């Protein structure tokens, strides 16, 4: 142990599971014949450690608690928070740029005459570019470091915002959206890794989760901006799309002065710089131990895995990293397969089903949905270091699955009482439309070309007809009684596009709210947080690139297939399907996700030493207890990886 020597008394915190891990390794190294002796040795060691723990608890409990408090206060200088917040601006831009487009499209499609294909291109162009650049970001991160990647992402965000705000035609808009997407992809894989690498272990989960808080904050802010600028019929979209340049420039300027990740620097042999940055991040804590542990780990890894061949091949042939990759990608896949982005995207429809007639009100209520997502991500930030990643993810996904079942039941009940279509007025232009073939509102609502025009008698639907929707605005019919908004509202007529008036809408609304309450604290942030910590340093960039790529690919898949899924399976079928995926996700997470709370990044690899479906049970926090051992040194100091400290 190379910690600076000093003469006062120091206590070291050591987890029993670490000691056992060390001994297990030693045991495995020894011959089979010495197994019994080793086991006996281990039993006596455990007993001795338990006793020493009890003794120290009895004699110095208060002292140790004070030491721990003092340690944790000392350990976290404000600089770590500043660095984390500046990086998390990348998350904010990710949320803002993916969220703002729905409101901008409402205005754009009128001003630039965009057809459905172009609208689709402007949305998916960004997400597709994000998927590609997340994958490429792995190589960049490994070669150039985290800081240049964050600078690159904020540069791309700024350039994209400029192009979008100044665009004169749809082609330029698409180019701007692709540039922004490239920024999102790089930011989404780099920021969590960077924060995890600069954070002290006891705060790592919380600080990385702040990045997801910023994502949902960006989505909320985007929905408010959409609401405000939707009143500005001309050029409102320029402000919506261009505003993201402000946080992007702030992040760029900030990162000109912020440091590189010390772990990446050590890996590249820039040890002096790494030490300097590490001591800036750790305040008055001695950093020798952390520094040595990172350095030893890198050397050990190189010995164990070798340094030849592409990282992804080495990851796939080395069982612990292969398992970590499956867990990381699986988490990201199940996050998207639980349907978060369709639930968010269709929240306005769900709210309209619940009787919100006014379009502007629906826009503002959609902002409320984004706000619930944001606030409950904050609950996640609070819970992650209390409950740990595993319990939080399992609890969150269970609630999400139940909420999806309630949401689907709301749509099912509504479909069962779907109003009959009673009128079939002839099309004045004599064009054949599919809308006349539906006998119930349910079929009419699932056809993207049609909407229901009806009157209400008390609460029952009367005089209903299924009519083609206006090509420029889904707020009115293409012809007939519901084709002029101001006129039909005066005549007590209603127009329902994408939904049916139903007495069971409250069930869907309840499902929506419960969904966000459960999803946001766990399934929203944990896939990002866990991925930032489960890979060893040599595999971290590549692991995060792959898992972020999986997140974006499934994001596109789920959003692009939602309408078709709803057409074939109906809305309730689609949400039951997502509930099924969530249930599968639960089994996967229960079996495969180990607890990483409080562990050093360098220790986490050992959690994946067991067979994949047993990783979830290995070395979790349950049954693990903390022990203080008296060692030489200066202050009360936490240390957990060097047996030479023990007196
Ligand atoms: O973690 C985030 C968050 O939950 C967002 O709300 C969602 O839009 C993203 O797809 C997801 O990756």
Automatic annotation (TrEMBL):
Against Gene3D superfamilies, the record matches this protein to: MFS general substrate transporter like domains
Return the CDD domains for the record.
MFS_HMIT_like (cd17360)
- Listed GO CC annotations: apical plasma membrane
Enumerate the catalysed reactions.
myo-inositol(out) + H(+)(out) = myo-inositol(in) + H(+)(in)
Sequence intervals crossing the membrane: 78-96, 116-137, 149-167, 173-195, 207-233, 239-258, 324-346, 361-384, 396-417, 504-524, 545-563, 569-593
Indicate the segments forming the Major facilitator superfamily (MFS) profile domain, all copies: 83-597
InterPro entries per the UniProt record, alphabetical: MFS_dom (IPR020846), MFS_sugar_transport-like (IPR005828), MFS_trans_sf (IPR036259), Myo-inositol_Transporter (IPR050814), Sugar/inositol_transpt (IPR003663), Sugar_transporter_CS (IPR005829)
Q: Keywords assigned by UniProt? A: Cell membrane, Glycoprotein, Membrane, Phosphoprotein, Transmembrane, Transmembrane helix, Transport
Q: Does the keyword Transport apply?
A: yes
GO molecular function terms listed in the Swiss-Prot or TrEMBL record: myo-inositol:proton symporter activity
The source's superkingdom equals Eukaryota
Compartments in which it is found: Cell membrane
Membrane protein topology class? Multi-pass membrane protein
Give the protein family.
Belongs to the major facilitator superfamily. Sugar transporter (TC 2.A.1.1) family.
Function of the molecule:
H(+)-myo-inositol cotransporter. Can also transport related stereoisomers.
The protein in question is named: Proton myo-inositol cotransporter
Q: Source species, please?
A: Otus sunia
């Amino acid at each position: 142990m190379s910690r600076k020597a000093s003469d006062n008394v120091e206590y070291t915190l050591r987890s029993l599971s670490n000691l056992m891990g060390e001994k297990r390794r030693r045991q495995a190294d020894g011959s089979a014949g010495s197994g019994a002796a080793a086991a006996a040795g281990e039993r006596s060691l455990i007993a001795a450690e338990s006793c020493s723990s009890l003794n120290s608890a009895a004699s110095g409990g208060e002292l140790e608690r004070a030491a721990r408090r003092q340690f944790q206060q000392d350990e976290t200088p404000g600089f770590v928070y500043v660095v984390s917040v500046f990086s998390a601006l990348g998350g904010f831009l990710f949320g803002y740029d993916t969220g703002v487009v729905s409101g901008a499209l409402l205005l754009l499609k009128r001003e630039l005459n965009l057809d459905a294909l172009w609208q689709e291109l402007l949305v998916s162009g960004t997400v597709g570019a994000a998927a590609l650049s997340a994958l490429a970001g792995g190589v960049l991160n490994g070669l150039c470091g985290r800081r240049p990647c964050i600078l690159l992402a904020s540069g791309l965000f700024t350039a994209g915002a400029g192009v979008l705000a100044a665009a004169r035609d749809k082609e330029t808009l698409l180019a701007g959206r692709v540039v922004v997407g490239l920024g999102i992809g790089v930011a989404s894989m780099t920021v969590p890794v960077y924060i995890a690498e600069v954070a002290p272990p006891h705060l790592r989960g919380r600080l990385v989760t702040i990045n997801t808080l910023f994502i949902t904050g960006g989505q909320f802010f985007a929905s408010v901006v959409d609401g405000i600028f939707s009143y500005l019929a001309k050029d409102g979209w320029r402000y919506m799309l261009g505003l993201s340049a402000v946080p992007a420039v702030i992040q760029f300027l900030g990162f000109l002065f912020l440091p590189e990740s010390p772990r990446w620097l050590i890996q590249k042999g820039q040890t002096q710089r790494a030490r300097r940055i590490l001591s800036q991040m750790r305040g008055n804590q001695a950093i020798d131990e952390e520094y040595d542990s990172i350095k030893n780990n890198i050397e050990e890894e190189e010995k164990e895995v070798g340094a030849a061949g592409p990282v992804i091949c080495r990851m796939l042939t080395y069982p612990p990293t292969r398992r970590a990759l499956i867990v990381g990608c699986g988490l990201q896949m199940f996050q998207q397969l639980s349907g978060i982005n369709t639930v968010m995207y269709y929240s306005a429809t769900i709210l309209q089903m619940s009787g919100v007639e006014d379009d502007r009100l629906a826009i503002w209520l959609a902002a409320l949905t984004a706000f619930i997502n944001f606030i409950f991500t904050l609950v996640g930030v609070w819970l992650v270091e209390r409950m740990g990643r595993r319990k939080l993810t399992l609890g969150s996904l269970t609630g999400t699955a139940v909420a999806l079942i309630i949401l689907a039941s709301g749509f099912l009940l509504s479909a069962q009482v779907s109003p009959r279509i009673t009128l079939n007025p002839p099309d004045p232009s004599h064009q054949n439309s599919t809308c006349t073939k539906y006998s119930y509102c349910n079929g009419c609502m699932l056809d993207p070309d049609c909407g229901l025009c009806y009157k209400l008698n008390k609460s029952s639907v009367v005089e209903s007809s299924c009519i083609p929707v206006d090509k420029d605005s889904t707020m009115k019919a293409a012809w007939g009684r519901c084709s002029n908004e101001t006129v039909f509202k005066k005549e007590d007529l209603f127009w329902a596009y994408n939904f049916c008036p139903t007495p069971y809408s409250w069930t869907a609304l309840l499902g929506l709210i419960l969904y966000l309450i459960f999803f946001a604290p766990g399934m929203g942030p944990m896939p990002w947080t866990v991925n930032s910590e489960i890979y060893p340093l040599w595999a971290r960039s590549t692991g995060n690139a792959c898992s972020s790529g999986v997140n974006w690919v499934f994001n596109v898949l789920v959003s692009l297939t939602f309408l078709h899924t709803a057409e074939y399976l109906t809305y309730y079928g689609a949400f039951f399907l997502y509930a099924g995926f969530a249930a599968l996700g639960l089994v996967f997470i229960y079996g495969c996700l180990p607890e990483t709370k409080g562990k050093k990044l360098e220790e986490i690899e050992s959690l994946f030493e067991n067979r994949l479906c047993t990783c979830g049970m290995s070395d979790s926090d349950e049954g693990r207890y903390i022990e203080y051992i008296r060692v030489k040194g200066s202050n009360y100091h936490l240390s957990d990886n060097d047996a030479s400290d023990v007196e």
